[in-house]
Automatic annotation (TrEMBL):
NCBIfam families: amidohydrolases. GO terms for biological process: folic acid catabolic process. Residues 201-290 form the Peptidase M20 dimerisation domain. This is Aminobenzoyl-glutamate utilization protein B. It comes from the Archaea. Pfam families: M20_dimer. InterPro entries: Amidohydrolase, Aminobenzoyl-glu_utiliz_pB, Bact_exopeptidase_dim_dom, Peptidase_M20/M20A_hydrolases, Peptidase_M20_dimer.
Length: 484
């Protein structure tokens, strides 16, 4: 029965490839992914999905639903935003297609596309009655008419950690029984590790402009306030838990040295392992900002952009991914693709390949030694660990059992958000699409049909997650201004 499901994915291979390339050729920044979101929606609508657009107050966010009955509802999360300044041709050297333009450095052109392919394959299995058939052969407790629902979530603006948080506030994940997703990478394995919770906010100071040399006594510098705030944060840094990450960049800092800057602002990310931890540090940050305003006789205001929780990766779903990996043939890269990957590896920073390999468990650490593209599936190797970054998948993982896997689309050692990743995402990364879509579809199929598996995922979820509270203060609007 799984073979029919996988054959349905193969039927869509060409279409997924065309979609992924089209998104790569038209990269769009977060919350402005009109074309990319539109292409994915149109593909799902043609396959009979019911589309709800504009969820969470974001025109490019959508939910596509297919199915009916009392069976479980399983979601596939997809992303499609690009990164600023990463425009890059398929080349073995840094070569922007258009200087300063965005590019797909995180592989979200593949990310959303594979999820769409998987969702459509599961929809066909629902049509054929395969879901009910497999379910009744496994258990007698379900009714004949159980069926089920598959959903694809079109999640915009992952790079600014915006999309899923605003969608979660809108309640679109509330009635899900589980969610699955994946991410392009230089290896293939379920991801068991966590990520950091985050607050993203801007602090803006307003002072008085004046001639900086002729009448400085009339001026009040907003830039001074930004500098004092940043200095204060550097002193705070010593007295927060080690895992906390705080980083910033100055958004506005005046226009000319002979004008006292009347407006200045700075954008902060605060990260910590828990929401409470983030909130404690953000509260301290706000106090330092007040102090900086007092010292400079300026006024401070805040724009809270977004926040998210840490990722809680569900072990039962990760095991489901691993079982499905065992059912599938490895991703088949051809000679030309391996050669291009090897050439790209030569441009990576020294030590990058060894660093990547050092994370792998034996025998994969050695087996990957001479591989430009290493697609052999591995067990999760990051259980109990947390990366220093954040993902808004964390938000969904607080609402329903959620897990993600990584699949090989990049040359071994390639960092995310690099031009080498852009090259891969426009070229050999696309070769992984059928594999990824099968892995997603097979796992969704298992969760739809295996009652005990889903119950076990829920038991684990209840143990790991406490009550959910959305991080957005009342009335927060999506930060369209961040990516204009
Ligand atoms: Zn990404």
């Amino acid at each position: 029965m799984k073979q029919r499901l996988f054959a349905d994915v193969d039927d869509q291979a060409e279409r997924m490839d065309e979609l992924a390339l089209d998104l790569w050729e038209h990269p769009e920044l977060g919350l402005h992914e009109e074309r990319s979101s539109g292409r994915l929606r149109e593909t799902l609508a043609e396959a009979g999905f019911e589309i709800e657009r504009g969820v969470g107050g974001m025109p490019t966010a959508f939910v596509a639903r297919y199915g009916a009955g009392d069976g479980p509802t399983i979601g596939i999360l997809g992303e499609f935003d690009a990164l600023p300044g990463l425009s890059q041709a398929v080349s073995t050297e840094r070569e922007p297609i258009e200087a300063g333009a965005p590019g797909h450095g995180c592989g979200h052109n593949l990310f959303g596309t594979a999820g769409v392919g998987a969702a459509i394959a599961v929809a066909r299995a629902l049509d054929r009655g395969d879901v009910d058939e497999r379910r009744s052969s496994g258990s007698q407790t379900q009714s004949d008419e159980a069926t089920g629902e598959v959903r694809f979530y079109g999640c915009p603006a992952e790079e600014t950690l915006v999309g899923k948080t605003f969608m979660a506030r809108d309640g679109v994940f509330d009635d899900l029984d589980a969610a699955v997703t994946w991410h392009p990478s230089d290896h293939t394995a379920p991801q068991r590790g966590s990520s950091l919770a985050l607050d993203s906010l801007s602090l803006r100071f307003e002072g008085e402009s004046a001639h900086a040399a002729a009448s400085p006594e009339s001026g009040r510098s907003a830039l001074d306030a930004v500098q004092l705030l940043n200095t204060g944060v550097e002193y705070m840094r010593e007295h927060v838990p080690e895992e906390v990450r705080v980083h910033y960049n100055v958004q506005e800092g005046g226009s000319a040295p002979n004008v006292v800057p009347a407006e200045a602002s700075v954008w902060y990310f605060v990260r910590a392992p828990t929401r409470e931890g983030v909130e404690r540090v953000t509260a301290w940050l706000r106090e330092i900002a007040d102090g900086a305003a007092t010292m400079t006789r300026t006024e401070v205001s805040e724009r809270y952009y977004t926040g998210c929780h840490r990722l809680v990766s569900n072990g039962v779903i990760c095991d489901t991914f691993r079982e499905n990996m065992a059912e599938l043939d490895e991703i088949e890269f051809d000679e030309e693709e391996r050669e291009l990957a090897a050439e790209l590896q030569e441009t990576l920073p020294e030590g990058a390949i060894a660093e990547s390999r050092s994370e792998f468990e034996p025998p994969h650490d050695d087996a990957a030694a001479d591989a430009a593209l290493y697609g052999t599936p591995m067990d999760a190797f990051d259980e109990g660990e947390s990366g220093g970054g954040s993902t808004d998948v964390g938000e969904v993982s607080q609402l329903t059992p959620t897990a993600q896997f990584r699949a090989t689309t990049w040359a071994l050692g390639t960092p995310a958000h690099s031009w080498q990743a852009v090259v891969a995402n426009g070229d050999f990364g696309r070769t992984a699409l059928p594999y990824v879509a099968k892995l997603l579809a097979g796992s969704v199929f298992d969760l739809l049909t295996d009652e005990e598996r889903l119950a076990a995922a829920h038991e684990e979820f209840e143990r790991e997650v406490e009550g959910y509270e959305n991080p957005l203060p009342d009335g927060t609007e999506p930060p369209f201004e961040l990516t204009q």
